[in-house]
Amino acid sequence: MDNVTPLGGDVYEIDTRMAGYAGITAGYLILGDRPCLVETGTSTSAPIVRDALTSLGVGAEDLATVVVTHIHLDHAGGVGDIAGHYPAAEIVVHEKGARHLADPSRLMASARMVWGDRLDDLFGTLAPTEAGRIRALGDTGAIDLGGGRRLTSHYSPGHAKHHVGLLDSATGDLYVGDAAGVYLPETGDLRPATPPPDFDLGTALDSVALFGDLGPQRLLFSHYGPVTDVPATLERSAEELRVWVDLTRQARTEGMDLDHAVAMVRDRTRERYAALSASEATADRFELLSGAPSNVAGIMHWLDRTDPAAGR
Q1: How would you class 308 by CB atoms within 10 Å of its CB: exposed for 0-12, middle for 13-18, buried for 19 or more?
Q2: Paired residues of 91 in beta bridges
Q3: CB of 67 within 8 A of CB of 151?
Q4: What region holds the Metallo-beta-lactamase domain (predicted)?
């Protein structure tokens, strides 16, 4: 299939074709004794993911585990649909996200407030998963991949309070979700992902540092794909966080409202990203993945919470 890419080590990247776009959101199949799907993509991507798994020889009874780095709909929106199609699969998520997979009503209501009518086209609807099939991870945990191979889970909030990174013991691959930002392979751009309501600079930087301490051989971004230059990429991730926070803090100190702050930060960061001067389609895709309005709003929310007396 043209949306499946072998990455070595029995790992396969699956382009989940979120909202019909290529190269936006990846799921990963670890095809071992106990096949494991990392990230499902959106609910509207579920048929695409199922077809990819079928092409790789994974039948309805074969998938052992589905694990998501966090419960945002571009990563976990398809969990309920995938769980229904693979009845033997255990569904693994951090404990702070588990209840929302069992009962997605609050999560979907919040998403509807953010995305409005675009929600259905971009993400679809997260179907509930039977609570008895969900395994909730604490700050660390392990997923058995068979043959002595395992994924270890490492709590990495900052982007979201229910976020984990996942390290493959056999390959050294680290599935970073959104905690290291959004990577665009065509241009090599890396941009932070700092949406409300959970963004916190200190914990975000701590998560990036933790990823470095784990000593991964390769970073597998959900947005999008593998990166082998691990130290430089994580250093850039931390730098991007600081740049966006510093600029948003400046806008807030100057009394700007959100719209003006977004315009200022977007203008001041434009030169950092080749994608924004590439084709219109590439620029639009980058903005959808890590939009300035969402990023600035998340940082503003954090500043309001941590430094309410300053600025506005």
Answers
A1: exposed
A2: 66, 134
A3: yes
A4: 24-223
Range of the domain at 168: 4-229
Residue 288 lies in a domain: no
Q: Is position 242 within any domain?
A: no
Q: Which residues pair with 227 in a beta bridge?
A: 219
Sheet arrangement for strand 164-168: 140-146, 149-155, 164-168, 173-177, 218-221, 225-227
234 in a domain, yes or no? Answer: no
Residues 297, 16, 122: CA angle, nearest 5 degrees: 45
Contacts for 249 with CB less than 8 Å, ≥ 6 apart? 299, 303, 311
Residue 308 pLDDT exceeds 80: no
Supply the CATH number for residue 93's domain: 3.60.15.10
* 286 within some domain: no
**Chain-wide mean pLDDT for the chain?**
93
Residue 291 has what pLDDT?
86
In total, how many domains does the chain have?
1
